[in-house]
Design a protein that fits this description.
The protein has 387 residues and is of the alpha/beta class. 33% of the residues lie in helices and 17% in strands. Bound molecules: FE2/S2 (inorganic) cluster.
């Protein structure tokens, strides 16, 4: 039994209806002694627990949050706890970035017959929260404006980003054309409303294939479409970083990897489309786009604007350690990858280093300041292939 002090803390427990709630019930029926700090919320499945529920609980005054579901492969909705495990593990690593001690959150698996295990889990977790004491709430911290690090200073960590641009797109198109008849669809990128906007392309014939592009504006991760084509033969164009999503989807058995063929070229890095938008401002037309090494000269409404990958690349590209994935099935232009210089393995994006330099309460103030701008459109969540 937990050695609880007299002060009761607020611990929120999200329990799946079929297993963990039954486990808690079994513990109750067996009259197992349990701490009284836990407030249980019954959910249909651990997969129903949106990380936002947990954040909301913390921001509204919970001192700890516990999520419990069926053991892996026992989920009554077959894969709900796999989704939960993935999200909750990420959330656990993410909590300190938000200013919340990760020891305040735990997830576990308890079946309906494991009353004793439930008693142990809840006692141990409650003891842990008592050791940490009360948590600060979001309302208690003040939104504080911080001086963000100078983004231009990132340039010193940048390596050549142009290898993908120099490779012949024609070779890639020929490689796809050769096998086009084998696929129900090949997913790639095409020019969007202008040359600096790229949108997904679903290739069924040679006419579609002619519209394929591969370059520094291909920021979207197309692996997000794979689950929609389960059971079909799909060709997918990927950058090296996108392959990680494919591996994850395969591990979670959300796709059949043998029916997916990955095509790739060495990636030279992609632009942060928000930074590009800021640089271009409001415009009517783009008349030309000229790519040279790590810069792109764009003629916008008759004026030249130079986009520099060293300054406007996505943060992940600046710390990328893999420009070409050897997990791809068809690799085009690989010889260029050997031209790449080695990376600094200790590189930490400046923005992340900045947040990590703050104390936990300061981080919460920082995010309160950032979140004041959020309009809850959900676009960030929809762009993740795992969610
Ligand atoms: Fe229990 Fe899905 S039904 S975790």
């Amino acid at each position: 039994m937990s050695d609880l002090n007299s002060q009761e803390l607020r611990i929120v427990g999200f329990l799946c209806n079929w297993c963990s709630y039954g486990g808690a019930d079994t513990a109750g029926v067996a009259r197992a002694k349990q701490p009284t700090d836990l407030r249980i919320i019954r959910v249909p499945c651990s997969g129903r627990v949106d990380p936002l529920f947990i954040l909301k609980a913390f921001f509204n005054g919970a001192d700890g949050v516990l999520v419990s579901g069926c053991h892996p492969r026992d989920c009554h909705y077959s894969s709900g706890n796999f989704y939960a495990r993935r999200r909750l593990e990420v959330l656990k690593h993410f909590l300190p970035i938000l200013g919340i001690d990760s020891k305040r959150f735990e997830y576990t698996w308890v079946s309906a017959s494991e009353g004793q295990r439930w008693q142990e889990v809840v006692t141990k977790f409650t003891d842990q929260i008592h050791e940490l004491g009360r948590a600060q709430t979001f309302a208690q911290v003040e939104a504080k404006a911080f001086d963000l690090p100078d983004l231009a200073s990132r340039a010193q960590s940048v390596l050549p980003l142009n290898c993908g641009l120099l490779d012949p797109l024609d070779k890639l198109k020929a490689a796809i054309a050769e096998r086009l008849a084998d696929f129900d669809v090949v997913i790639g990128w095409q020019k969007g409303r202008d040359d600096v906007h790229v949108v997904p392309l679903f290739i069924h014939d040679q006419k579609d294939l002619d519209r394929l592009v591969f370059g520094p504006f291909n920021a979207q991760n197309l692996a997000t479409y794979l689950t929609e084509y389960k059971g079909k033969k799909v060709g997918l164009l990927v950058k090296a970083c996108d392959v990680r999503s494919v591996v994850e989807l395969e591990q979670e058995e959300l796709i059949d990897r043998s029916s997916v063929t990955l095509f790739t070229m060495p990636c030279g890095g992609t632009f942060d489309l928000g930074a590009v938008q800021d640089k271009l401002g409001r415009y009517e037309t783009i008349s030309s786009v000229e790519i040279k090494d790590t810069t792109v000269k764009v003629v916008v409404d008759g004026k030249d604007v130079v986009l520099d990958l060293a300054k406007e690349a996505q943060g992940k590209c600046l710390s990328c350690t893999c420009r070409l994935s050897n997990k791809s099935d068809v690799i085009v232009g690989a010889e260029k990858a050997q031209d790449l210089q080695p990376y600094d393995p200790n590189y930490v994006p400046r923005e992340l280093a900045f947040v990590e330099s703050l104390s936990l309460p300061e981080r919460m103030s920082f995010w309160k300041w950032q979140l004041e701008r959020c309009i809850r459109c959900g676009a960030c969540r929809n762009s993740c292939p795992m969610c």
